[in-house]
Amino acid sequence: xxxxxxRLKKQNLVPVKRLPDALIIGVKKCGTRALLEFxxxxxxxxxxxxxxxxxxxxxxxxxxWYRDRxxxxxxxxxxxxxTPSYWVTRSAPKRVYAMNPSVKLLAVVRDPVTxxxxxxxxxxxxxxxxxxxxxxxxxxSTVGWGGAWSVVDASWPPVRLxxxxxxxxxxxxxxxxxxxxLISGERLVADPAAEMARVQEFLGLKHVITExxxxxxxxxxxxxxxxxxxxxxxxxxxxxxxxxxxxIDPVAIERLRDxxxxxxxxxxxxxxxxxxxx
Length: 278
Ligand code: A3P
Description:
The chain has eleven helices and eleven strands. The chain is α/β, with parallel strands linked by helices. Strand 10 (about 215) and strand 11 (about 220-225) form a beta hairpin. The mean pLDDT is about 95. Bound molecules: adenosine-3'-5'-diphosphate. Adenosine-3'-5'-diphosphate (A3P) binds near residues 241 and 243. Adenosine-3'-5'-diphosphate binds near residues 188 and 242.
């Protein structure tokens, strides 16, 4: 009956939809899906399955609409969602703050050069006629003595998104550094259990996700899951995660490394973490 339902609800025995306590805000192609799927192994975490895009595309729909996109939770469980475009949405920090000033933020970052190639590989898989990576990332210039490929096209989105310093500054204008956890995309692949220990610590969760959940699948070249709530047998992330990348001319790679070096330095300074990208 209606009364019984209300009583159970009061006793926290009925799950209800709540606004997120934590958000994965980015960065695109750095391992955001892996982080979310790993977090979902935790019984005290419930997450929206697909990207909600509330703070960038659907903010006008209001917080009730947003809440309705969330999975039902019991008190004490953490509600989450991940939408990587929040990282670079100018209005997102202010809007997220308006929802909950003590929300916890997580961002995965990765060597911007491999991130750019990963981003390009995703686009090329949908559009096989796309020009080569080298010809999009670099513009031929006749000025100076650099010759061909001397200038990086900083406005091409796969290149631009790897400049992490500026979006970080925007988020830190609104949130204290302690409220944002930066996760190394490289370490999430090399040692997922260690990286997930940091994540669980940050979210105030019991350390339930451990080595026991992962195995390294050498065919895929990535860590995969032994079991999860939805599947009792070993499985990897989908085919669209962990694609093989095209060979890129080493000269182009070198140009991009030179381009990113000062931005990476700035990002290390701002974040207080040296990610050690080459
Ligand atoms: P590639 O497919 O280019 O290798 P996102 O989920 O943010 O789109 O990031 C995708 C990237 O996550 C993949 O890029 C891959 O490198 C990385 N990744 C990290 N851990 C992974 C895992 N366990 N399985 C597959 N991909 C993983």
